[in-house]
Fold this protein.
Amino acid sequence: MPESTVNGDLLDGFLADGVPRHRVYAPDATTALLGAAGKPERDLKLAALAADGVPVLRRRGGGGAVVLTPGQVVLALVVEVASDFGNREYARKINEWFIEALGALGVDGLEQRGITDLALRGRKVLGTSIYRSRRVLFYQASLLVANDVTVFARYLEHPYAEPDYRRGRDHDAFCTTLRTGGYDLDPARVIAALDAVVTRRIPGLG
């Protein structure tokens, strides 16, 4: 199983010079990602991934397996913070930046659910992952904007651990997109709005 990491260059760069970094982008292809403790045979439908030629990578940080596809928006950032602890609090603070950026685009009704998810009317639209090394915070999140959520069930097993608000729902019933929720947004507009908020807010995160 490949051990390449997604957005690992941001963390490596920060460790080299201490300068905060972030990246906001839309994936241009489908990729399955395992968390640091993920197990391919438990978390992924390996036969389907192999049949479709979908690569499997790892990410630094916790959380379950995810699938990145076109139509999503990904934020990755790395910064020094004041505390060795507080992962949930830091993640939720950054999640508020999504709420701020999307609010400027007319999206309302987003709420923090589970540990560090964002949900729209009870269905997940954003998942996050945190990697910590003392006071280094490496945060990654994927926002479901206009992608096809049915691919999740094709490539992902039901997670071995789930937030309470999922209530056993399968991927199709649990996840939704902003577009399905009634917001006619494309990734480019979301990227521009989110990047502006992150650029303004990241100096104050630590």
